[in-house]
Protein backbone atom coordinates (compact mmCIF):
# COMPACT_ATOMS: atom_id res chain seq x y z
CA UNK A 1 0.00 0.00 0.00
CA UNK A 2 1.26 3.48 -0.87
CA UNK A 3 2.87 5.11 2.05
CA UNK A 4 4.98 7.59 0.18
CA UNK A 5 3.49 9.88 -2.39
CA UNK A 6 4.39 13.51 -2.58
CA UNK A 7 1.83 15.76 -4.09
CA UNK A 8 1.41 19.09 -2.42
CA UNK A 9 -2.25 19.90 -1.85
CA UNK A 10 -3.32 23.11 -3.58
CA UNK A 11 -4.45 24.46 -0.24
CA UNK A 12 -6.24 23.34 2.85
CA UNK A 13 -8.37 24.71 5.64
CA UNK A 14 -9.94 23.20 8.73
CA UNK A 15 -13.29 23.82 10.43
CA UNK A 16 -15.63 26.75 9.79
CA UNK A 17 -18.49 27.30 7.37
CA UNK A 18 -17.67 27.49 3.69
CA UNK A 19 -20.05 28.65 0.96
CA UNK A 20 -19.25 27.42 -2.52
CA UNK A 21 -20.72 26.40 -5.87
CA UNK A 22 -19.83 22.73 -5.66
CA UNK A 23 -18.54 20.25 -3.13
CA UNK A 24 -16.90 17.19 -4.62
CA UNK A 25 -16.83 14.19 -2.30
CA UNK A 26 -13.73 12.15 -3.12
CA UNK A 27 -10.41 13.16 -4.70
CA UNK A 28 -9.98 10.05 -6.83
CA UNK A 29 -9.37 10.48 -10.57
CA UNK A 30 -13.03 11.17 -11.27
CA UNK A 31 -13.39 13.75 -8.49
CA UNK A 32 -10.25 15.48 -9.71
CA UNK A 33 -11.40 15.58 -13.31
CA UNK A 34 -14.75 16.94 -12.16
CA UNK A 35 -12.86 20.01 -10.91
CA UNK A 36 -11.70 20.55 -14.49
CA UNK A 37 -15.05 20.12 -16.18
CA UNK A 38 -16.80 22.30 -13.60
CA UNK A 39 -14.02 24.86 -13.78
CA UNK A 40 -14.44 25.32 -17.52
CA UNK A 41 -18.02 26.31 -16.76
CA UNK A 42 -17.00 28.78 -14.03
CA UNK A 43 -18.10 26.52 -11.21
CA UNK A 44 -15.84 26.72 -8.17
CA UNK A 45 -15.24 23.53 -6.24
CA UNK A 46 -14.09 22.32 -2.85
CA UNK A 47 -12.86 18.73 -2.74
CA UNK A 48 -13.01 16.58 0.40
CA UNK A 49 -11.27 13.24 0.90
CA UNK A 50 -10.66 11.10 3.94
CA UNK A 51 -7.22 10.21 2.55
CA UNK A 52 -4.38 12.64 3.21
CA UNK A 53 -3.65 13.13 -0.50
CA UNK A 54 -5.34 13.08 -3.89
CA UNK A 55 -5.67 10.06 -6.20
CA UNK A 56 -8.19 7.74 -4.53
CA UNK A 57 -7.59 4.11 -5.48
CA UNK A 58 -4.83 5.10 -7.91
CA UNK A 59 -2.80 6.63 -5.10
CA UNK A 60 -3.72 4.29 -2.29
CA UNK A 61 -3.92 0.90 -3.96
CA UNK A 62 -1.67 0.97 -7.00
CA UNK A 63 0.53 4.08 -7.29
CA UNK A 64 3.32 2.19 -9.03
CA UNK A 65 1.25 -0.05 -11.26
CA UNK A 66 0.70 0.77 -14.91
CA UNK A 67 -2.70 1.63 -16.38
CA UNK A 68 -2.99 0.93 -20.10
CA UNK A 69 -6.46 2.14 -20.99
CA UNK A 70 -6.46 5.86 -20.36
CA UNK A 71 -6.94 7.39 -23.82
CA UNK A 72 -3.77 8.90 -25.30
CA UNK A 73 -1.60 7.69 -22.44
CA UNK A 74 -0.42 4.25 -23.61
CA UNK A 75 1.02 3.65 -20.18
CA UNK A 76 0.66 5.65 -17.01
CA UNK A 77 1.04 4.69 -13.36
CA UNK A 78 -1.61 5.46 -10.77
CA UNK A 79 0.60 8.09 -9.20
CA UNK A 80 1.52 9.70 -12.52
CA UNK A 81 -2.12 9.91 -13.53
CA UNK A 82 -2.88 11.63 -10.24
CA UNK A 83 -0.05 14.10 -10.70
CA UNK A 84 -1.15 14.90 -14.23
CA UNK A 85 -4.73 15.48 -13.15
CA UNK A 86 -3.52 17.77 -10.36
CA UNK A 87 -1.58 19.74 -12.94
CA UNK A 88 -4.54 19.87 -15.31
CA UNK A 89 -6.90 21.27 -12.68
CA UNK A 90 -4.45 23.78 -11.22
CA UNK A 91 -5.87 26.76 -13.18
CA UNK A 92 -9.15 26.31 -11.32
CA UNK A 93 -7.63 26.54 -7.83
CA UNK A 94 -9.74 23.88 -6.17
CA UNK A 95 -9.62 23.91 -2.38
CA UNK A 96 -8.75 20.52 -0.92
CA UNK A 97 -9.81 19.26 2.47
CA UNK A 98 -7.82 16.12 3.10
CA UNK A 99 -8.11 13.70 6.03
CA UNK A 100 -11.75 14.68 6.40
CA UNK A 101 -14.81 12.58 5.66
CA UNK A 102 -18.17 13.99 4.64
CA UNK A 103 -20.55 12.50 7.17
CA UNK A 104 -23.71 14.53 6.63
CA UNK A 105 -25.42 15.78 3.53
CA UNK A 106 -28.82 17.47 3.68
CA UNK A 107 -30.90 19.66 1.41
CA UNK A 108 -31.78 23.05 2.90
CA UNK A 109 -35.03 24.95 2.47
CA UNK A 110 -33.33 27.27 -0.06
CA UNK A 111 -32.47 24.29 -2.29
CA UNK A 112 -28.77 24.37 -1.45
CA UNK A 113 -26.98 21.58 0.35
CA UNK A 114 -25.48 21.49 3.81
CA UNK A 115 -22.51 19.17 4.33
CA UNK A 116 -20.56 18.40 7.49
CA UNK A 117 -17.25 16.56 7.84
CA UNK A 118 -16.09 14.39 10.72
CA UNK A 119 -13.71 17.22 11.64
CA UNK A 120 -16.57 19.69 11.87
CA UNK A 121 -15.99 21.61 8.62
CA UNK A 122 -19.34 22.72 7.17
CA UNK A 123 -20.20 23.55 3.60
CA UNK A 124 -23.14 25.18 1.90
CA UNK A 125 -23.11 24.20 -1.77
CA UNK A 126 -25.37 24.67 -4.75
CA UNK A 127 -24.49 21.27 -6.14
CA UNK A 128 -22.83 18.18 -4.73
CA UNK A 129 -20.77 15.73 -6.76
CA UNK A 130 -20.33 12.35 -5.14
CA UNK A 131 -17.14 10.83 -6.53
CA UNK A 132 -16.71 8.46 -3.63
CA UNK A 133 -15.42 5.49 -5.66
CA UNK A 134 -15.60 2.25 -3.73
CA UNK A 135 -16.43 4.25 -0.61
CA UNK A 136 -14.26 5.94 1.93
CA UNK A 137 -10.96 4.35 2.82
CA UNK A 138 -11.32 2.85 6.28
CA UNK A 139 -8.74 1.09 8.47
CA UNK A 140 -8.95 -2.69 8.28
CA UNK A 141 -10.34 -4.29 11.40
CA UNK A 142 -8.35 -7.35 12.51
CA UNK A 143 -10.78 -10.30 12.71
CA UNK A 144 -10.26 -10.84 16.44
CA UNK A 145 -13.21 -12.01 18.48
CA UNK A 146 -15.02 -9.19 20.23
CA UNK A 147 -12.81 -6.40 18.88
CA UNK A 148 -15.86 -4.19 18.12
CA UNK A 149 -16.53 -3.81 21.85
CA UNK A 150 -13.11 -2.28 22.44
CA UNK A 151 -13.06 0.07 19.44
CA UNK A 152 -12.94 3.75 20.36
CA UNK A 153 -12.37 2.89 24.02
CA UNK A 154 -9.14 0.95 24.07
CA UNK A 155 -8.61 -0.15 20.47
CA UNK A 156 -7.82 2.75 18.13
CA UNK A 157 -7.12 3.00 14.42
CA UNK A 158 -5.88 6.55 14.70
CA UNK A 159 -5.04 8.96 17.49
CA UNK A 160 -6.12 12.59 17.37
CA UNK A 161 -4.45 13.63 20.64
CA UNK A 162 -1.17 12.13 21.78
CA UNK A 163 -1.92 13.27 25.35
CA UNK A 164 -4.92 10.92 25.49
CA UNK A 165 -2.42 8.04 25.42
CA UNK A 166 -0.33 9.23 28.35
CA UNK A 167 0.46 6.61 30.96
CA UNK A 168 -1.09 3.75 29.00
CA UNK A 169 0.38 0.36 28.31
CA UNK A 170 0.22 0.50 24.54
CA UNK A 171 0.47 -2.24 21.97
CA UNK A 172 1.01 -1.24 18.34
CA UNK A 173 0.57 -3.87 15.65
CA UNK A 174 2.05 -3.58 12.15
CA UNK A 175 5.21 -2.91 10.19
CA UNK A 176 4.46 0.05 7.93
CA UNK A 177 4.86 3.78 8.33
CA UNK A 178 1.73 4.26 10.43
CA UNK A 179 2.80 1.61 12.96
CA UNK A 180 6.34 2.96 13.17
CA UNK A 181 5.36 6.64 13.30
CA UNK A 182 2.96 6.00 16.15
CA UNK A 183 5.56 3.89 17.94
CA UNK A 184 8.00 6.79 17.80
CA UNK A 185 5.36 9.36 18.79
CA UNK A 186 3.71 7.47 21.60
CA UNK A 187 6.70 5.81 23.29
CA UNK A 188 7.60 9.03 25.16
CA UNK A 189 4.13 9.37 26.75
CA UNK A 190 3.31 5.69 27.23
CA UNK A 191 3.87 3.77 30.43
CA UNK A 192 5.03 0.91 28.22
CA UNK A 193 4.97 0.35 24.49
CA UNK A 194 5.15 -2.96 22.68
CA UNK A 195 5.45 -3.09 18.89
CA UNK A 196 4.22 -6.37 17.44
CA UNK A 197 4.93 -7.37 13.87
CA UNK A 198 4.75 -10.74 12.15
CA UNK A 199 8.37 -10.62 10.90
CA UNK A 200 11.57 -8.80 11.74
CA UNK A 201 11.41 -6.76 8.55
CA UNK A 202 9.64 -3.47 8.19
CA UNK A 203 8.14 -1.72 5.17
CA UNK A 204 8.35 1.63 6.92
CA UNK A 205 10.84 4.35 6.02
CA UNK A 206 14.37 3.17 6.96
CA UNK A 207 15.04 6.15 9.23
CA UNK A 208 11.92 5.38 11.33
CA UNK A 209 12.96 1.74 11.55
CA UNK A 210 16.41 2.82 12.70
CA UNK A 211 14.93 5.10 15.38
CA UNK A 212 12.63 2.33 16.54
CA UNK A 213 15.58 -0.09 16.81
CA UNK A 214 17.42 2.46 18.95
CA UNK A 215 14.40 2.71 21.25
CA UNK A 216 14.32 -1.07 21.51
CA UNK A 217 18.00 -1.01 22.48
CA UNK A 218 17.48 1.52 25.25
CA UNK A 219 14.39 -0.44 26.33
CA UNK A 220 11.83 2.35 25.82
CA UNK A 221 10.10 0.11 23.28
CA UNK A 222 9.67 -3.64 23.27
CA UNK A 223 9.67 -5.32 19.86
CA UNK A 224 7.88 -8.64 19.56
CA UNK A 225 7.81 -10.81 16.47
CA UNK A 226 4.45 -12.51 16.41
CA UNK A 227 0.75 -12.14 15.72
CA UNK A 228 -2.13 -11.14 17.96
CA UNK A 229 -4.62 -13.97 18.33
CA UNK A 230 -7.01 -12.87 21.08
CA UNK A 231 -8.12 -9.92 23.19
CA UNK A 232 -8.96 -9.87 26.89
CA UNK A 233 -10.89 -7.31 28.87
CA UNK A 234 -14.38 -6.14 29.78
CA UNK A 235 -16.70 -3.18 29.16
CA UNK A 236 -14.58 -1.94 26.31
CA UNK A 237 -11.42 -1.84 28.39
CA UNK A 238 -8.61 -4.04 27.12
CA UNK A 239 -6.51 -5.68 29.83
CA UNK A 240 -4.30 -8.05 27.83
CA UNK A 241 -3.72 -9.57 24.42
CA UNK A 242 -2.58 -13.02 23.43
CA UNK A 243 0.35 -13.13 21.00
CA UNK A 244 1.45 -16.14 18.99
CA UNK A 245 5.23 -16.18 18.58
CA UNK A 246 7.71 -18.60 17.04
CA UNK A 247 8.25 -20.23 20.43
CA UNK A 248 4.64 -20.47 21.51
CA UNK A 249 2.22 -18.01 22.96
CA UNK A 250 2.58 -15.03 25.28
CA UNK A 251 0.11 -12.85 27.11
CA UNK A 252 0.89 -9.11 27.09
CA UNK A 253 -0.93 -6.92 29.62
CA UNK A 254 -2.01 -3.67 27.96
CA UNK A 255 -4.59 -0.91 28.19
CA UNK A 256 -4.60 0.26 24.57
CA UNK A 257 -4.01 -1.31 21.18
CA UNK A 258 -3.46 0.33 17.80
CA UNK A 259 -3.66 -2.14 14.89
CA UNK A 260 -2.37 -1.00 11.47
CA UNK A 261 -3.36 -3.46 8.76
CA UNK A 262 -3.90 -1.04 5.91
CA UNK A 263 -7.08 0.37 4.51
CA UNK A 264 -10.11 -1.04 2.80
CA UNK A 265 -12.95 0.75 1.03
CA UNK A 266 -16.28 0.88 2.84
CA UNK A 267 -19.34 2.64 1.44
CA UNK A 268 -19.64 4.57 4.70
CA UNK A 269 -21.83 7.66 5.15
CA UNK A 270 -22.95 7.76 1.49
CA UNK A 271 -25.53 5.16 2.47
CA UNK A 272 -27.21 7.55 4.94
CA UNK A 273 -28.05 10.44 2.65
CA UNK A 274 -31.41 9.20 1.40
CA UNK A 275 -30.18 8.44 -2.10
CA UNK A 276 -31.46 5.56 -4.16
CA UNK A 277 -28.91 2.78 -3.95
CA UNK A 278 -28.57 -0.39 -5.94
CA UNK A 279 -26.21 -2.99 -4.46
CA UNK A 280 -24.32 -0.31 -2.53
CA UNK A 281 -23.97 1.95 -5.55
CA UNK A 282 -25.75 5.22 -6.20
CA UNK A 283 -28.31 5.05 -9.02
CA UNK A 284 -28.02 7.83 -11.61
CA UNK A 285 -29.42 8.70 -15.03
CA UNK A 286 -27.06 8.66 -18.00
CA UNK A 287 -27.84 12.13 -19.27
CA UNK A 288 -26.76 14.15 -16.24
CA UNK A 289 -25.45 11.50 -13.85
CA UNK A 290 -27.79 12.95 -11.28
CA UNK A 291 -29.13 10.97 -8.31
CA UNK A 292 -32.77 10.91 -7.23
CA UNK A 293 -32.04 14.19 -5.44
CA UNK A 294 -31.94 17.15 -7.85
CA UNK A 295 -28.54 18.84 -7.52
CA UNK A 296 -26.70 15.80 -6.18
CA UNK A 297 -24.66 14.04 -8.85
CA UNK A 298 -22.67 10.83 -8.64
CA UNK A 299 -19.77 9.96 -10.97
CA UNK A 300 -17.06 7.33 -11.16
CA UNK A 301 -16.99 3.97 -9.40
CA UNK A 302 -19.69 4.95 -6.89
CA UNK A 303 -22.52 5.20 -9.41
CA UNK A 304 -24.52 2.63 -11.31
CA UNK A 305 -26.67 2.67 -14.44
CA UNK A 306 -27.38 0.14 -17.18
CA UNK A 307 -24.09 -0.78 -18.83
CA UNK A 308 -21.88 0.88 -16.18
CA UNK A 309 -18.19 0.06 -16.39
CA UNK A 310 -15.92 0.89 -13.46
CA UNK A 311 -13.26 2.48 -15.62
CA UNK A 312 -11.45 5.76 -15.19
CA UNK A 313 -12.31 6.84 -18.73
CA UNK A 314 -16.02 6.27 -18.10
CA UNK A 315 -15.81 8.45 -15.00
CA UNK A 316 -14.22 11.23 -17.04
CA UNK A 317 -17.10 11.18 -19.50
CA UNK A 318 -19.56 11.24 -16.62
CA UNK A 319 -17.80 14.30 -15.18
CA UNK A 320 -18.23 16.21 -18.45
CA UNK A 321 -21.96 15.57 -18.70
CA UNK A 322 -22.50 16.17 -14.99
CA UNK A 323 -20.84 19.58 -15.28
CA UNK A 324 -23.23 20.68 -18.03
CA UNK A 325 -26.19 19.78 -15.83
CA UNK A 326 -24.62 21.46 -12.81
CA UNK A 327 -24.20 24.62 -14.84
CA UNK A 328 -27.93 24.76 -15.46
CA UNK A 329 -28.49 24.75 -11.70
CA UNK A 330 -25.80 27.26 -10.79
CA UNK A 331 -26.27 29.62 -13.74
CA UNK A 332 -29.90 29.08 -14.75
CA UNK A 333 -29.94 32.30 -16.79
CA UNK A 334 -26.82 31.51 -18.77
CA UNK A 335 -27.21 30.40 -22.34
CA UNK A 336 -25.38 27.12 -22.71
CA UNK A 337 -22.89 27.32 -25.56
CA UNK A 338 -20.83 24.34 -26.46
CA UNK A 339 -17.13 25.17 -26.84
CA UNK A 340 -13.85 23.43 -27.57
CA UNK A 341 -10.79 24.07 -25.42
CA UNK A 342 -8.78 24.09 -28.66
CA UNK A 343 -10.52 27.09 -30.15
CA UNK A 344 -12.53 28.92 -27.52
CA UNK A 345 -10.66 31.98 -26.32
CA UNK A 346 -12.88 32.22 -23.25
CA UNK A 347 -12.03 28.64 -22.19
CA UNK A 348 -8.36 29.27 -22.88
CA UNK A 349 -8.43 32.34 -20.70
CA UNK A 350 -9.81 30.25 -17.85
CA UNK A 351 -7.09 27.69 -18.43
CA UNK A 352 -4.50 30.43 -18.29
CA UNK A 353 -3.07 29.58 -21.69
CA UNK A 354 -4.16 32.82 -23.39
CA UNK B 1 -5.70 -28.07 -17.65
CA UNK B 2 -4.18 -28.04 -14.21
CA UNK B 3 -5.94 -29.36 -11.13
CA UNK B 4 -6.05 -27.24 -7.97
CA UNK B 5 -7.69 -28.25 -4.72
CA UNK B 6 -9.02 -25.67 -2.27
CA UNK B 7 -9.67 -26.84 1.28
CA UNK B 8 -12.01 -24.76 3.43
CA UNK B 9 -11.40 -24.25 7.18
CA UNK B 10 -14.20 -26.77 7.89
CA UNK B 11 -12.37 -29.41 5.84
CA UNK B 12 -14.61 -29.28 2.80
CA UNK B 13 -12.54 -29.57 -0.35
CA UNK B 14 -13.15 -28.56 -3.94
CA UNK B 15 -10.97 -29.48 -6.88
CA UNK B 16 -11.08 -27.25 -9.93
CA UNK B 17 -9.48 -27.31 -13.36
CA UNK B 18 -7.58 -24.18 -14.29
CA UNK B 19 -6.06 -22.97 -17.50
CA UNK B 20 -2.29 -22.49 -17.40
CA UNK B 21 -1.27 -18.86 -17.28
CA UNK B 22 -4.13 -17.81 -15.02
CA UNK B 23 -3.41 -17.15 -11.37
CA UNK B 24 -4.62 -19.40 -8.57
CA UNK B 25 -6.80 -16.49 -7.40
CA UNK B 26 -8.44 -16.25 -10.83
CA UNK B 27 -9.04 -19.99 -10.83
CA UNK B 28 -10.71 -19.65 -7.42
CA UNK B 29 -12.90 -16.73 -8.54
CA UNK B 30 -13.94 -18.48 -11.76
CA UNK B 31 -15.09 -21.42 -9.67
CA UNK B 32 -16.72 -19.42 -6.87
CA UNK B 33 -14.42 -20.73 -4.16
CA UNK B 34 -15.61 -19.33 -0.84
CA UNK B 35 -13.20 -17.27 1.23
CA UNK B 36 -11.12 -15.85 -1.62
CA UNK B 37 -12.18 -12.23 -1.81
CA UNK B 38 -9.54 -10.65 -4.04
CA UNK B 39 -10.77 -7.09 -3.54
CA UNK B 40 -8.03 -5.56 -5.67
CA UNK B 41 -8.48 -7.96 -8.57
CA UNK B 42 -5.01 -9.44 -8.43
CA UNK B 43 -2.85 -6.35 -8.10
CA UNK B 44 -1.08 -7.56 -4.96
CA UNK B 45 -2.69 -4.61 -3.22
CA UNK B 46 -5.25 -6.04 -0.79
CA UNK B 47 -4.13 -9.37 0.71
CA UNK B 48 -7.68 -10.72 0.61
CA UNK B 49 -6.68 -13.66 -1.61
CA UNK B 50 -4.49 -15.15 1.14
CA UNK B 51 -4.06 -18.96 1.12
CA UNK B 52 -1.90 -21.51 2.90
CA UNK B 53 0.01 -23.66 0.44
CA UNK B 54 0.03 -27.30 1.52
CA UNK B 55 3.41 -28.40 2.97
CA UNK B 56 4.04 -30.85 0.15
CA UNK B 57 3.69 -28.12 -2.46
CA UNK B 58 5.67 -25.32 -0.89
CA UNK B 59 8.93 -25.90 -2.78
CA UNK B 60 7.20 -26.27 -6.14
CA UNK B 61 5.15 -23.13 -5.67
CA UNK B 62 8.12 -21.14 -4.44
CA UNK B 63 8.50 -18.18 -2.17
CA UNK B 64 6.69 -14.89 -2.08
CA UNK B 65 8.42 -11.90 -3.68
CA UNK B 66 9.38 -8.92 -1.49
CA UNK B 67 6.32 -7.01 -2.65
CA UNK B 68 4.10 -9.97 -1.78
CA UNK B 69 5.77 -10.34 1.65
CA UNK B 70 5.03 -6.67 2.30
CA UNK B 71 1.41 -7.19 1.37
CA UNK B 72 1.21 -10.32 3.54
CA UNK B 73 1.71 -7.92 6.49
CA UNK B 74 -1.90 -6.94 5.82
CA UNK B 75 -3.18 -10.53 5.99
CA UNK B 76 -4.45 -12.21 9.12
CA UNK B 77 -2.85 -15.27 10.75
CA UNK B 78 0.11 -15.50 8.39
CA UNK B 79 1.95 -18.84 8.53
CA UNK B 80 4.87 -20.69 6.91
CA UNK B 81 2.91 -21.58 3.81
CA UNK B 82 1.14 -18.24 3.43
CA UNK B 83 0.93 -16.87 -0.11
CA UNK B 84 -1.29 -14.46 -1.97
CA UNK B 85 -3.06 -16.62 -4.51
CA UNK B 86 -3.08 -13.84 -7.12
CA UNK B 87 0.70 -14.09 -7.21
CA UNK B 88 0.82 -17.84 -7.98
CA UNK B 89 0.70 -18.66 -11.69
CA UNK B 90 -1.03 -21.83 -12.79
CA UNK B 91 1.28 -24.15 -14.75
CA UNK B 92 1.91 -27.86 -15.34
CA UNK B 93 4.52 -27.73 -12.58
CA UNK B 94 1.85 -27.27 -9.95
CA UNK B 95 -0.72 -29.73 -11.33
CA UNK B 96 -2.46 -31.19 -8.27
CA UNK B 97 -1.71 -28.19 -6.02
CA UNK B 98 -3.44 -28.15 -2.65
CA UNK B 99 -4.10 -24.86 -0.85
CA UNK B 100 -6.06 -24.08 2.31
CA UNK B 101 -8.37 -21.11 2.59
CA UNK B 102 -7.89 -19.19 5.86
CA UNK B 103 -10.75 -18.86 8.32
CA UNK B 104 -10.83 -15.10 7.79
CA UNK B 105 -9.53 -12.73 5.14
CA UNK B 106 -10.10 -9.55 7.20
C1 LIG C 1 -5.44 -2.57 -8.62
C2 LIG C 1 -6.38 -1.78 -9.47
C3 LIG C 1 -6.11 -1.62 -10.81
C4 LIG C 1 -6.97 -0.84 -11.62
N1 LIG C 1 -6.68 -0.70 -12.96
C5 LIG C 1 -7.47 0.08 -13.72
C6 LIG C 1 -7.19 0.26 -15.12
O1 LIG C 1 -6.22 -0.28 -15.66
N2 LIG C 1 -8.01 1.09 -15.85
C7 LIG C 1 -9.11 1.71 -15.30
O2 LIG C 1 -9.80 2.46 -16.01
N3 LIG C 1 -9.41 1.52 -13.98
C8 LIG C 1 -8.62 0.73 -13.20
N4 LIG C 1 -8.94 0.53 -11.88
C9 LIG C 1 -10.16 1.16 -11.37
C10 LIG C 1 -9.94 2.64 -11.10
O3 LIG C 1 -8.89 2.83 -10.17
C11 LIG C 1 -11.23 3.22 -10.57
O4 LIG C 1 -12.21 3.12 -11.58
C12 LIG C 1 -11.05 4.69 -10.20
O5 LIG C 1 -10.12 4.85 -9.18
C13 LIG C 1 -12.39 5.27 -9.77
O6 LIG C 1 -12.19 6.61 -9.48
P1 LIG C 1 -13.16 7.40 -8.53
O7 LIG C 1 -12.65 8.80 -8.56
O8 LIG C 1 -14.56 7.13 -8.94
O9 LIG C 1 -13.02 6.75 -7.10
P2 LIG C 1 -11.79 6.32 -6.16
O10 LIG C 1 -10.51 6.28 -6.88
O11 LIG C 1 -12.25 5.10 -5.47
O12 LIG C 1 -11.72 7.53 -5.11
C14 LIG C 1 -12.79 7.80 -4.26
C15 LIG C 1 -12.29 8.62 -3.10
O13 LIG C 1 -13.42 9.09 -2.36
C16 LIG C 1 -13.10 9.09 -1.00
N5 LIG C 1 -14.35 9.08 -0.23
C17 LIG C 1 -15.37 8.20 -0.29
N6 LIG C 1 -16.37 8.54 0.54
C18 LIG C 1 -15.96 9.68 1.16
C19 LIG C 1 -16.55 10.54 2.14
N7 LIG C 1 -17.76 10.30 2.66
N8 LIG C 1 -15.83 11.61 2.57
C20 LIG C 1 -14.58 11.87 2.05
N9 LIG C 1 -13.99 11.10 1.12
C21 LIG C 1 -14.67 10.02 0.68
C22 LIG C 1 -12.27 7.84 -0.83
O14 LIG C 1 -11.48 7.94 0.33
C23 LIG C 1 -11.46 7.84 -2.12
O15 LIG C 1 -10.20 8.45 -1.96
C24 LIG C 1 -8.12 -0.23 -11.06
C25 LIG C 1 -8.38 -0.41 -9.71
C26 LIG C 1 -7.54 -1.16 -8.91
C27 LIG C 1 -7.84 -1.33 -7.46
S1 LIG D 1 -6.22 -10.12 -5.07
FE1 LIG D 1 -5.57 -8.42 -3.91
S2 LIG D 1 -3.65 -9.10 -3.24
FE2 LIG D 1 -4.33 -10.78 -4.37
Description of the molecule:
- The complex is a heterodimer of chains A (354) and B (106).
- Chain A is α/β, with parallel strands linked by helices and 354 residues long.
- Chain A has eight helices and 20 strands.
- Chain A has two domains: 17-137 and 264-351, FAD/NAD(P)-binding domain (3-Layer(bba) Sandwich), CATH 3.50.50; 141-261, FAD/NAD(P)-binding domain (3-Layer(bba) Sandwich), CATH 3.50.50.60.
- In chain A, strand 13 (237-245) and strand 14 form a beta hairpin.
- In chain A, helix 1 (29-40) runs parallel beside helix 3 (78-89), helix 1 packs parallel to helix 7 and helix 5 packs across helix 6.
- Chain A starts with 16 loop residues before the first strand and ends with a helix.
- The model of chain B has no long low-confidence stretch (mean pLDDT 95).
- By secondary structure, chain B is α+β, with helices and mostly antiparallel strands.
- In chain B, a hairpin with a 5-residue loop joins strand 1 (2-7) and strand 2 (13-18).
- The termini of chain B are far apart.
- A five-stranded mixed beta sheet of chain B has the order 2-1-5-3-4.
- Chain B is globular, with a radius of gyration of 12 Å.
- Chain B has helices at residues 24-30, 58-61, 66-72; strands at residues 2-7, 13-18, 50-53, 82-84, 97-100.
- Chain B has one domain (2-100): Ubiquitin-like (UB roll) (Roll), CATH 3.10.20.
Amino acid sequence: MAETISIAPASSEGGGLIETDAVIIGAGPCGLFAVFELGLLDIKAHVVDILDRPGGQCAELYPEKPIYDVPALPIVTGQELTERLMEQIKPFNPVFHFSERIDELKKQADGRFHLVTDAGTEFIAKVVVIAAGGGSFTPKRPPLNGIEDFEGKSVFYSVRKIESMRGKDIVIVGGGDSALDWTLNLAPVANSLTLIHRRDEFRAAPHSVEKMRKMVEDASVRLMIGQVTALEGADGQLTAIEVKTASGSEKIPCTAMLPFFGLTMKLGPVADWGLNLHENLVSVDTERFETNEHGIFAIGDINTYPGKLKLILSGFHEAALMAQAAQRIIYPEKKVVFQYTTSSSSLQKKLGVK
Amino acid sequence: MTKITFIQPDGESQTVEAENGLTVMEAAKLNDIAGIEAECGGACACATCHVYVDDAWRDKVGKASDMEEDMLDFAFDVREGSRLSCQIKVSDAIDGLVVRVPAKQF
